[in-house]
Amino acid sequence: MRAKNKFIHRHHHHHAADETSVHRVPGAAPGIDIESESIDKYFSERLVGQVNGMVVDFNAETYQIRQGLANADLCDWISKPRPDFSAVRWIHVEGMAWDVIKTVSQIHGLHPLSIEDALHLPQRVKVDNFSNHLFISLLVCRLASLTSDVAEIDVAARHRLLKQRLHPMAESGECTLLDIEADNCSMFLLDDGTLITFTHFASGFLVEPILSRLTNATTMLRSLSDASFLLNALIDSIVDHYLPITEAYADQFERLEAIVFEKPNIHIIRYLHATHADLIELKQKLLPVQTLIRNLRTMSHRVASSPTRPASGSMQRPASFIGASSTTVLPDGSTASAAASKETSSGSNAAPKVAQERLSPICKTYLSDVQDHIDTCLDHVSTLQGWAQNLTDLAFNCISYTTNENMKVLTIASVVFLPITFLAGVYGTNFTFLPELSWTFGYPLFWTACIVLVTVTLVYLKRRGFY
């Protein structure tokens, strides 16, 4: 006996922090101050998991990769000064642990608002510009698998209460809803050439392709040694995983189209309705990504940096808490810290500040390719939505046509047998005298009359085009 096939559609979200935590009550100060004792106590009791850390240092000539770092090893490694050759440092953390988050935030001066956004999941797609770093929260979607052994389907997708049991489809109508995993990736681009990324899921499918490029000295990623270009590579890798989802939906619709033409049924319509709802949700999730990439391409944020990279490993508070590090706008449109302006005006021998873009021109150039990918993906989703609606209309029309054909057959049968039904009714009456009943050939004549009437009726209906 064949196993019963079911539909399933799942969205996976991993919540790192409780949304009802004490620092998010109405009226509380925004952001997460890592120096607050109450905040430290709260998260120290809740975010106690183990992380899988990675630290990559590289320039155009050489690189150094340390993987599989646990909490203590990761905190110890990033607290040390960066190697002299390190033009770019990439710190990647899988998992959530407060000791790691606190150490990274203290060393690199992450803003309290960006820390809050990285902890509270699911988080909307966004980009924030802070005094010493750029924060990006991006949605990671990927096609996980096709599942066919679950009894129920959430027809209206995640967070809806309505669930409808779908009966097993006919053998010609087997289909399964796509299993899509969705989560957030938090990225911090610092002005000292450091990129910090946090994920709450196994992210090898994102990291490994980039590492393979970093180990090859001939790639642009290595030759440029640009942290913003590394950020572009990661965003591009995330967006590239959107396309297989739309391709999988297209493959499903091609099979469904053949099924609708052959044997449409209510189960196909239910499946199309659920898929159409999923496509609407997918489009709502991808539209902010398109806006984010456009904003990154047009972003113009000039930062003041010294010719030499500041020493890594120094413990510092976010710039918003340090008055001497506040940013001021220079007459030429560049920015510099207030402390640097004061030193310059006093005639000190400090090194001059060099104004540069937080996102390099080459990064913005290649972001246009990423924008092409997300635009293509959204075009596919819009096409798939129309395809799903057309297939739904086609299924309804085919079912209506089949119903009309069945009613037509019944109507023709009724019309054909109406004359002989009349004869049977006449000779089935209880009158005392019916001359035909006493005829010797009365019974054969009755059947002859019935056959003639049926034949004449069929010929008439045929000539009128009823069948």
Automatic annotation (TrEMBL):
Gene Ontology terms, MF aspect: cobalt ion binding; cobalt ion transmembrane transporter activity; magnesium ion binding; magnesium ion transmembrane transporter activity
InterPro entries in UniProt: CorA_cytoplasmic_dom, CorA_TM1_TM2, MgTranspt_CorA/ZnTranspt_ZntB
TM spans (from-to): 409-429, 441-461
Residue runs in coiled coils: none
The keyword Nucleotide-binding is annotated on this UniProt entry: no
Compositional bias ranges of the Basic residues kind: 1-15
Role of this protein: Mediates influx of magnesium ions. Alternates between open and closed states. Activated by low cytoplasmic Mg(2+) levels. Inactive when cytoplasmic Mg(2+) levels are high.
Similarity comment: family membership: Belongs to the CorA metal ion transporter (MIT) (TC 1.A.35) family.
Protein name: Cora-like Mg2+ transporter protein-domain-containing protein
Organism expressing this protein natively: Catenaria anguillulae PL171
